[in-house]
Amino acid sequence: MSAVYQLAARLPQKENTFIEISSPCGKTTIGEGFCTIIAGSCAVESREQYLELVQLLQPAGVHLLRGGIYKPRTSPYSFTGLGSEGLGILEEARKLSGLPVVSEVLDIRDLDRVCQVCDMVQIGSRNMQNFALLKEVGKFSKPVLLKRGLAATIEEWLGAAEYILMAGNQQVVLCERGIRTFEDMTRNTVDIGAVALVKELSHLPVIVDPSHATGRRSLVSPVARAAIAAGADGLMIEVHQNPDEALSDGKQSLTPEEFAPLAEQIKAMARFQGKSTDAVKYERAELSGEEHTI
Amino acid sequence: MSAVYQLAARLPQKENTFIEISSPCGKTTIGEGFCTIIAGSCAVESREQYLELVQLLQPAGVHLLRGGIYKPRTSPYSFTGLGSEGLGILEEARKLSGLPVVSEVLDIRDLDRVCQVCDMVQIGSRNMQNFALLKEVGKFSKPVLLKRGLAATIEEWLGAAEYILMAGNQQVVLCERGIRTFEDMTRNTVDIGAVALVKELSHLPVIVDPSHATGRRSLVSPVARAAIAAGADGLMIEVHQNPDEALSDGKQSLTPEEFAPLAEQIKAMARFQGKSTDAVKYERAELSGEEHTI
Amino acid sequence: MSAVYQLAARLPQKENTFIEISSPCGKTTIGEGFCTIIAGSCAVESREQYLELVQLLQPAGVHLLRGGIYKPRTSPYSFTGLGSEGLGILEEARKLSGLPVVSEVLDIRDLDRVCQVCDMVQIGSRNMQNFALLKEVGKFSKPVLLKRGLAATIEEWLGAAEYILMAGNQQVVLCERGIRTFEDMTRNTVDIGAVALVKELSHLPVIVDPSHATGRRSLVSPVARAAIAAGADGLMIEVHQNPDEALSDGKQSLTPEEFAPLAEQIKAMARFQGKSTDAVKYERAELSGEEHTI
Amino acid sequence: MSAVYQLAARLPQKENTFIEISSPCGKTTIGEGFCTIIAGSCAVESREQYLELVQLLQPAGVHLLRGGIYKPRTSPYSFTGLGSEGLGILEEARKLSGLPVVSEVLDIRDLDRVCQVCDMVQIGSRNMQNFALLKEVGKFSKPVLLKRGLAATIEEWLGAAEYILMAGNQQVVLCERGIRTFEDMTRNTVDIGAVALVKELSHLPVIVDPSHATGRRSLVSPVARAAIAAGADGLMIEVHQNPDEALSDGKQSLTPEEFAPLAEQIKAMARFQGKSTDAVKYERAELSGEEHTI
Question: Which of A219, B15, B251, D33 would you call most buried, defined as having the most Cβ atoms within 10 angstroms of its Cβ?
Fold first, then answer.
């Protein structure tokens, strides 16, 4: 057995981990046998922008909303998110749509507040080995989306998950988002083999972020299909009403119009692979319109 | 337009390239809309080994046989193939199965002989920028399988294809076989985004070699499915009767028993993606048994 | 001008940054024209171990002591340092030797305490883009040693420095510690060109850590010399009394006996390059023995 | 002992390899204890260009001239050298200067002709694992300059040298020219640790090409000094009368005026490291002017 990850390791007697995420309207599941789609804009840019987007996304059958309010940026002069001001917007989006919300935390001191509003907490690539943050998020009972580091080995990635599991939080979802290589025609290189390998080594669910991984709008769709075909348990996709004016990651964002057929493709591929795309169980009738039961 | 590749570039007026490979029993096609499966052992180890393998592979619906007789090896002390002695074995395998054969050439001086026997010539990763070899193979009318270099950029890969096209040979198939990165749990990192991007940039067919790309038997199947899902036009897979005793690449080789269900999976995925898996058109009745019309 | 780093950029009218580090016995300088040697064990393992080591290091002409009490480790099961208990040991080492001390901080909540004891704070590779930590350390008036991330580009590294400078702290020293590449015979690949390029792009001092960069004891000496030859303003070197029993990084640690002649070599190379090796100005006579004025 | 390289391995009883290169005017040595400087333009562009350059280089104390007549280029539309027409120019340069000449061979069929004119044959990065070429050059008694592949591991590099040694040619000089990494501010990343490590693992001489390795004129000088400091036995540097109009690699070429003081710096560093810079032994009096005895 690996000396680095033990709680994260797949063992004969250990069952696959299923993450159940509660939201105002019911429950979303992430894990083996399901295909869970997370979508939203890279950043929450304003109340108008985000709430409009959410309403455009809902009919496409999204299971979880993403929306960054603390953005890690290479340059301190870039837009770094609305900060805690954005929390209210996320809360409103959640109520409006009935969908659960995931958002990234950069600073230990924001964890409490974010956990009160969001249904899942994201640890981003740049913080994959921010061990203080990992241990702290491990003390919460909130599901965690752990992105692979920019150039993290599979072992380091599972080691990072282990820090969270060890601290008591068993609800960890791994997210492959491309690794850094010499190839510069794509923003990163999606490690599709790692998706299959991590599923083999660990009982934790694994999803893929084809938007950050490729950095090119036209590649999101083929890479999303490939991810599901390789065994991924879900996808996280960037969508923006007006990608060309997005405050971050416009080049890789889809419009809601482009996203809708992609979501159909993904769900068809998931069903072909024997996965349920009914990852949301609605309890409040008014929210589960026909277009919504995916 | 790229200054590096012009003949290889996808242009509005330019149709996709289809490669037709003639064999004793009919024709095999590689190109958009087809899914072509190439299989065989990394090396032709002996007459007995290879002919037995070919007979085991045929029922699985392979379209093209691979078998290396000139093997590029890091160490000069490793098995470097049977050399020209192996040509007779490839010829026999071709007659026996009716299937076309592809084999790698390392030395310009072997091109003539190999082209007389084989239906397709492979330029391996280590020779992707052996420009003398590229120009020479460009003078033949034989289809070429051009593997991506160990750490070649997409632009360099298309530039290498351009050398062949410029010399007059238009029948080039590109093969993604994993690139070199920091991750060492897999032999290489499959660049699945590059498969989709190259299909976008060029009219040439693209296939994937999940065996070399991952170096792990258990990953061949998920990566093969992912490749087809991302738009690849085919696959090249290593199969060996006895992987543990293979003279090269045993760790990533499947047995014929493991390969048969994988071939079924691949074909099902291809059909789901709207691709024909009937890439071989048999003209000789005795060779197209029911199990063979895939 | 780069949109990512502006305060860190070398401008015609801007002078080189010199860092002055106060210690019980006087002042240590890091910056253009000086060669500053930082040495110590990767981790402070115990009071006995560390104080003994410090006494062995002092005669070799070390300018700054390193000693980790919070250790970022891939596995949560590895030794992760003595934590705040180690602070007292660092304080004692500082008094005993008269030398300033640098130690890594992983958690924002430890910054205050560490800054009270240490003369310089290290931000490690895994936290190079822990922006919350960068901004916080930027509020202190303590010199910062900012290591390059595992796979950070030069632009990202300077962007990280910019976060600290923007927050008000101008005392930043950059530390190249090798980047992650495909080569696995060395732990990392020292980017010697980056040392020279960063000196060209920025006015901040740059030092090199040949121990982490190579991960091999025998390479520390040639890479240390190369670093000074390329223009580095100093070195950070791991030394341990008993490398084979070190709790971390033993394979790359030198014994004090091996370190002494290396320090001589480094100082000779520095003088050859026109750098002063007299980076410590002693104010307390009893601490500046002859062997110490380097 | 490594299974990959045995003849190339440093063994207790085995002496360092010294390469003696004969030229019209005497002998040049490459090996431990010497610092050998190879310089010239990337390509021989015309008779006028190259002969003028050689006359400008000679006073700077160059030991060997480089000049490419067969150029491996990513794009077939780039200038690929004068080809065999350039051989006459190299011959003239050799006679005019009395200095030996090294030039790259891409095609087995050119080996004979190039070996008749040149004093050393270069195998370039793209052909490091062109095993047919390696075995063929191993049959000649001509010294070989073997560049490291674009992304070759140290083991693969030594394995490539082994192919030449095994074929009978013991005169191999290894050349580090930067490896491919994610960093794009430099053309490649110089692996300075590899220089020291290869000197430890093998008895073959190792030189560094700071021009291709960095791709930036301003970095040639610091990296050249670093290479000698790390133990390299020499350097290969690109010089061009008019870098901005060079047909290849202009951005990294120095003018003869920039090269002259660099050559002085290199020689000073070499002497500081205990190396002789008197690597040319002149036998013809008229060629060894005072400025030439370096």
Answer: A219
